[in-house]
Amino acid sequence: MDFPAWLRATHWLNAFFLGFLIRAGIQILGAYPRLYWNDHSTPGTEWLKFARRPIPSDRPWITLEQERDVSPLLGQPGGNNLGLGRHWHFAAALFWIVNGLVYVLLLVVSGEWQRLVPTSLSIVGEAWQAFLTYLSLQQPPSAAHSPYDALQQLAYAAVVFLLGPFLILTGAAQSPGLEAQFPRFAAIFGGRQGARSLHFLGLVAFVAFTLVHTFMVVVTGFSRNMADMLFGEHGADEGAAVIVGLGLIGAMFAAYGITSWASRRWPRSAQHALGRLIRPAMRPLALRTRSRQHYPAASISPELLVNGAPPDTADYRALAEAAFAGWRLDVDGLVGRPLHLSAADLRGMPEQTQITKHHCIQGWSGIAEWTGVPLGAILDACAPQPKARFLVFHSYQLDESGRPFYESVDLALGRHPQTILAYRMNGEPLSVEHGAPLRLRVETELGFKMVKWLRRIELVADYRTVGQGQGGSREDTMFYEQAPGI
Ligand SMILES: Nc1nc2c(c(=O)[nH]1)N[C@H]1C(S)=C(S)[C@@H](COP(=O)(O)O)O[C@H]1N2
Ligand SMILES: [Mo]
Question: The CATH number of 297-478 is which of 3.40.190.80, 3.90.420.10, 3.30.70.100, 1.10.10.10?
Answer without folding.
Answer: 3.90.420.10
